[in-house]
Recover the amino acids of this structure.
């Protein structure tokens, strides 16, 4: 199956980072086109395209923009969320490094549609090289008049500021990001109010993922209908999938949404690494439920199909596990990540994340008890839905789904552990 | 809120646990529930701080919402149907879960914790959890006994990270010394590098702390809370009249906490007032009435002193009469003193011959949030009683000028009969050689004061002066502001109740009893007959004083009531 190349059309060219080459390949034509349209029409076009947020939640981008109050008298801020930190996700990095002007052009179009005069790219602290690429691209764009005062001779002016994070996962959550951008520790805000109304410095703010914004130039160039024709009805367009783990060819792939998962693994990723069998897949970054190999038949890479299968497309961070993977160890690995990254603001997540990690660690050390599995389940119920931000839901998902899908691996450890304890005690 | 008129259009109706609730628009669910007597538990919420929403204790179920919602961050809207722990099993489970998490790493050192007995972690555990621990893991260790500033000490393990202290310093004092350091379960409260928690309201963070994490350095490990007697009263440090709870054990003030009163001090208190409660208790006390002849002091029985005082002060004597009132007197005492001045001394209470000490002082910007620029708790009681109203300018200026001009009259020898009522009626700092001589020269002078003097010895310049009262002919042993109850009026004309905290020493009598005694000895009756009880005294004053017409002690209650500057309730 031939896939559309909307985001990665020019990703192979090494000179794509330079503005001249970018322009030569049709770059910034969409911006010229968009600036000739009234902002409302750009917004309508994006709404019509059915583009959904690529950061993980999959919320309609056009609808999100629609929440910004008109004529609030306050500036509107647009933030490009390039704080890509979800384990297993490395798709934005490709765009930022290889085609930074695409990320900028999409952002300028979005700023025009939203009436934002001041925008910001919040980039993950560890993304030092992508930050350099963006910085160079910004300088070039300013020099060519795509940014700054009176862009391309229009009334529209826009400044984009690049802000590097300090390395906290939670700063990818939009209100955590806003707090961080304001100079505070990255602790998410309580909602309501939502950022679209009260965001950065108390002003209406839209936070969009890099991949989402990068899709805008193509939509403007080719029209919403053309975009909507790609993919499935509920998941239009293409999506970057970052495949990692036990596949032969890990990497970032652009696919039309609706592509069967197994086909993707075999055709694009070259199948499971030498001589091994597929055991499980975490399809959308570490925060989505795991799927066993036997559950993957007929599952497609799109929002609705994965949801029906009991998981999520999320950020498109596809983690592939073969039969050599120990699922309790996997659970501990992920749980350690979440316990470390909890911001510590609200009670259930601050206390619960570590507790679960400690219990899993104990099970792995052969000191688990039969009551532990029920305890973890109960704790997850006490955390999920009871926290300020979605981190609480994210942290319980891997362990819960691993326990549900691979119960025998957990109980075997517990039984073995008990045996060895009995042997230790009674010889 | 209850004192404001509210339009029906500004109200919303909702249902909480099946009860109909009607609250002003913009009210959150915690306050809305409270208005019908439903208590939603919380740790991080505070009426006068921003909403943090981090403790997750106040979760409620709202019809139509997929998840539980925190009540503190939910504004009541028309038709909302809310279920609290009284009717929702999901809320009960969520509260139990929250408490399990909060207690997970809590050291459970209640046996040595000052908060034990008034700790919200204890209270809520008994009320909303009372389930056994499921923890097999080790607890997280954090900083212990970490001083944050001169007055406050921090225990990281007890802390539940509600951030009330951080928000108080950021939003109220705007000094922002505190912050949450680290992340996840390593989070602790700390001061920013190079800073310490030393703002003038710093002790307030201990009140705001719902657990034993922040304690007063000077008061910790003093006593178990349940051995104390706690009274609701007001701070008499200045004319703000902060509402407070004062815990006393064995006649020692062992803990002072601010009391929530949105109309006065929210729930804040200044360190000077809080830690300075003891300053109203003088070291030495007068054991018996004393009469001075020349420089010799002689202790006399009460009856003899009353007879001498009545004889000296009565209006039949020649010369001008003057009275200096302490701003620490209760309103009842001021009223009775004015009656005394008119009835026995034949003076005019509206004249400039009655003065009240209201010394101005400088305050820094943080102090100005709460503290009034004076040391005169009840100074605004006097104009309410129809005195102290002459002169120009605002009351503060008039009062100050009047006091100084009366001192000038004493210096010039114009005053022949002088009555000093209460502690600090005449400030020590105003005593210079000239004034000392002038006071000694006043023919008839009587002081009623809680302060001591060298009993039975002569006045000796080398021993130093203990106060102006020592220069009077007759000194009667009065009581301090902590040893009497009554009412006071703060600078906003709010009438508030003062409670007796400490047992007065033997032989001392409150100022108002002495005044009645002297009047009786002089053949006069004040207030229609001899009154033996503070409550009856208030009732008598309220009956005779138009400013207080129809206001009973019960009306004043714990939170006081607002009066207009002319007297009478603000409607």
């Amino acid at each position: 199956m031939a896939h559309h190349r909307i985001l990665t059309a020019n990703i192979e060219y090494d000179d794509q980072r330079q503005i001249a080459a970018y322009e030569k390949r049709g770059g910034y034509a969409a911006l010229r086109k968009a600036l000739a349209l009234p902002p409302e029409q750009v917004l309508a076009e994006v709404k019509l395209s059915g583009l959904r947020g690529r950061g993980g939640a999959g919320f309609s981008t056009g609808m999100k923009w629609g929440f910004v109050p008109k004529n609030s008298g306050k500036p509107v801020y647009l933030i490009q969320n390039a704080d890509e930190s979800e384990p297993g996700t490395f798709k934005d990095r490709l765009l930022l490094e290889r085609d930074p002007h695409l990320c900028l052009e999409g952002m300028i179009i979005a700023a025009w549609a939203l009436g934002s005069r001041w925008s910001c790219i919040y980039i993950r602290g560890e993304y030092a090289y992508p930050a350099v690429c963006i910085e160079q691209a910004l300088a070039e764009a300013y020099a060519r008049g795509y940014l700054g005062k009176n862009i391309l001779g229009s009334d529209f002016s826009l400044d984009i500021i690049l802000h590097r994070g300090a390395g906290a996962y939670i700063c990818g959550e939009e209100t955590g990001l806003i707090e961080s951008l304001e100079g505070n520790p990255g602790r998410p805000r309580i909602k309501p109010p939502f950022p679209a109304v009260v965001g950065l410095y108390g002003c209406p703010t839209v936070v969009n993922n890099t991949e989402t914004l990068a899709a805008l130039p193509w939509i403007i160039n080719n029209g919403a209908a053309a975009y909507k024709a790609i993919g499935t009805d509920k998941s239009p367009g293409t999506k970057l999938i970052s495949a990692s783990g036990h596949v032969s060819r890990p990497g970032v792939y652009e696919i039309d949404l609706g592509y069967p998962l197994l086909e993707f693994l075999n055709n694009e990723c070259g199948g499971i690494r030498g001589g091994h069998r597929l055991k499980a897949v975490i399809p959308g970054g570490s925060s989505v439920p795991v799927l066993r190999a036997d559950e993957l038949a007929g599952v497609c890479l799109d929002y609705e199909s994965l949801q029906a299968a009991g998981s999520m497309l999320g950020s498109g961070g596809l983690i592939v596990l073969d039969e050599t993977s120990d699922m309790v160890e996997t659970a501990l690995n992920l749980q350690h990540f979440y316990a470390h990254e909890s911001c510590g603001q609200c009670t259930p997540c601050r206390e619960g994340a570590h507790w679960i990690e400690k219990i899993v660690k104990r099970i792995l050390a052969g000191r688990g008890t039969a009551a532990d599995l029920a305890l973890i389940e109960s704790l997850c119920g006490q955390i999920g839905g009871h926290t300020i931000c979605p981190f609480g839901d994210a942290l319980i998902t891997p362990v819960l789904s691993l326990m549900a899908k691979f119960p025998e691996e957990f109980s075997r450890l517990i039984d073995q552990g008990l045996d060895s304890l009995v042997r230790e005690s009674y010889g | 809120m209850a004192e404001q008129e509210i339009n029906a259009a500004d109200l919303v109706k909702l249902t909480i646990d099946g009860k109909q609730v009607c609250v002003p628009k913009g009210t959150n669910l915690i306050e809305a529930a409270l208005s019908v007597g439903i208590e939603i538990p919380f740790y991080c919420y505070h009426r006068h701080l921003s909403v943090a929403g981090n403790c997750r204790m106040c979760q409620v179920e709202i019809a139509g919402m997929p998840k539980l919602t925190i009540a503190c961050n939910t504004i009541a809207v028309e038709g909302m149907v809310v279920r609290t722990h009284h009717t929702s099993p999901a809320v009960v489970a969520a509260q139990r879960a929250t408490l399990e998490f909060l207690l997970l790493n809590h050291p459970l050192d209640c046996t040595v914790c000052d908060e034990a007995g008034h700790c919200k972690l204890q209270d809520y555990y008994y009320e909303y959890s009372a389930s056994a621990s499921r923890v097999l893991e080790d607890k997280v260790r954090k900083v212990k006994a970490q001083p944050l500033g001169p007055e406050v000490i921090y225990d990281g393990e007890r802390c539940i990270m509600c951030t009330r202290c951080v928000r108080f310093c950021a939003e109220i004092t705007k000094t922002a010394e505190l912050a949450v350091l680290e992340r996840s379960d390593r989070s602790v409260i700390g001061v920013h590098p190079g800073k310490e928690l030393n703002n003038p309201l710093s002790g307030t963070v201990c009140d705001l702390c719902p657990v034993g994490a922040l304690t007063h350095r000077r008061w910790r490990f003093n006593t178990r809370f349940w051995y104390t007697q706690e009274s609701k009263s007001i701070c008499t440090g200045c004319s703000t009249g902060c509402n407070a709870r004062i815990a006393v054990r064995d006649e020692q003030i062992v803990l002072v906490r601010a009391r929530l009163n949105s109309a006065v001090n929210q729930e804040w208190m200044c360190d000077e007032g809080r830690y300075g409660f003891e300053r109203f208790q003088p070291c030495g006390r007068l054991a018996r009435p004393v009469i001075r002849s020349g420089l010799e002091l002689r202790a006399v029985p009460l009856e003899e002193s009353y007879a001498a005082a009545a004889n000296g002060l009565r209006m039949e004597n020649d010369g001008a009469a003057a009275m200096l009132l302490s701003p620490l007197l209760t309103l009842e005492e001021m009223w009775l003193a004015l009656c005394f001045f008119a009835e026995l001394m034949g003076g005019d209470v509206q004249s400039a011959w009655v003065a009240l000490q209201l010394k101005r002082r400088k305050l820094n910007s943080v102090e100005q949030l709460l503290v009034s620029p004076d040391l005169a708790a009840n100074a605004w009681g006097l104009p309410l009683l129809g005195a102290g109203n002459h002169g120009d300018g605002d009351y503060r200026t008039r009062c100050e000028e009047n006091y100084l001009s009366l001192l000038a009259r004493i210096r010039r020898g114009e005053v022949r009969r002088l009555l000093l009522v209460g502690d600090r009626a005449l400030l020590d700092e105003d005593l210079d050689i000239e004034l000392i001589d002038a006071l000694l020269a006043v023919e008839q002078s009587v002081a009623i004061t809680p302060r001591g003097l060298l009993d039975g010895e002569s006045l000796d310049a080398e021993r130093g002066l203990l106060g102006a009262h020592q220069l009077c002919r007759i000194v009667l042993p009065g009581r301090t502001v902590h040893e009497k109850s009554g009412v006071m009026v703060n600078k906003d004309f709010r009438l508030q109740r003062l409670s007796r905290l400490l047992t007065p020493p033997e032989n001392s009598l409150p100022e108002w009893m002495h005044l009645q005694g002297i009047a009786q000895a002089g053949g006069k009756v004040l207030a229609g007959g001899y009154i033996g009880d503070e409550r009856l005294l208030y009732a008598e004053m309220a009956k005779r004083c138009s400013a207080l017409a129809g206001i009973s002690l019960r009306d004043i209650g714990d939170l006081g009531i607002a009066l207009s500057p002319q007297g009478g309730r603000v409607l």
